[in-house]
Design goal:
2 copies of one chain form a homodimer. By secondary structure, chain A is of the alpha/beta class. The first copy, chain A, is 42% helix and 16% strand.
């Protein structure tokens, strides 16, 4: 059983910015530190908690509230709850921050639209541009960038290792993760 | 931080049988033992995870799958996850048991329909009999009693203390909760 405190690590950013990639990169690192960790990924949550919801503002907000509800429950019980949904609206992210009984760390996974659209990992931007997908964040739906995120990473010109290190540095500085040997490049 | 193992304590039974009452009675006892505990109550979950879902078999199953998804996540991280939804269908309860990575303890909170209907704590049975509420478990919708529940309590003729003790005895016997001084009546 871990002796660290739980917290919520709330990733926000455009589709393809690298939220899930960063989460998946960090998870084994947290585990190695002896931390408990769960990831509430956008796609997985839509399948397990929000099937039937669409992408209107109201449905997106409902989806985010469900993620926040579960993340709060996990983190107040000592788990690192990582959320990796686009979560485009600032007001609802702030609501989740306010509800969270444990530490809430917002991580803005920033990448310019040109960059994520060029990546187009899942082929979604092409479909959004063609109008096949409606209400697509960044194309036909707003994305409200955080103004006071605890950590901002720029995946357009930072490597995954650099982005992860920036998150870890913040968490370490705040005493949220155990001290560890950091091997500097 | 607690050193006990998490498990799911899945209550099932008719509306008014005493699932939430029993859960609320047990929670401070678990807390005093140094255990982490969360309760996924039927009404609260409908508000936070399942708003918009109705009471068709499909919607009920979706609701129960969401509860099971969260309970599994909590219990595999060392939390006692108590669920207190009617969960009338045996197949979906068994599915949740199969999905659960931690111990899964099904508690059948049994009380005869006559008893819960006479109690009618929330006035729901009266509305169900009058046809104001449709698809009401026990009246106009089925309840499939568990055949192999780990614990069965009969709240029609057992006190809340007796029912709680029966649950605690089982958990203690299985080593799921720490040893404690049990004061026999």
């Amino acid at each position: 059983m871990s002796d660290h405190k739980g917290f919520t690590l709330w990733f926000t950013g455009l589709s393809g910015a690298g939220k899930s990639t960063l989460a998946q990169y960090l998870i084994p690192m947290f585990t190695e530190m002896g931390c408990l960790v769960e990831c509430l990924d956008g796609d997985e949550v839509r399948e397990n908690l929000s099937k039937g919801l669409g992408f209107s503002k109201e449905d997106r907000d409902t989806n985010i509230r469900r993620i926040g509800y579960v993340a709060n429950m996990l983190s107040r019980n000592g788990v690192i709850a990582i959320t990796a949904a686009i979560s485009p609206y600032a007001a609802i992210r702030d609501e989740m921050r306010g509800n969270c009984k444990a530490h809430f760390v917002e991580v803005y996974v920033e990448a310019p639209l040109e960059v994520v659209e060029a990546r187009d990992t899942k082929g979604l931007y092409k479909k959004a541009r063609a109008g096949i997908i409606k209400q697509f964040t960044g194309i036909s739906d707003p994305y409200e960038a955080p103004e006071k995120a605890e950590v901002t990473v720029h995946t357009g010109d930072q490597s995954i290792e650099e982005s992860a290190q920036k998150v870890l540095d913040y968490l370490h500085e705040k005493g949220l993760i155990p001290a560890r040997q950091v091997q500097k490049a």
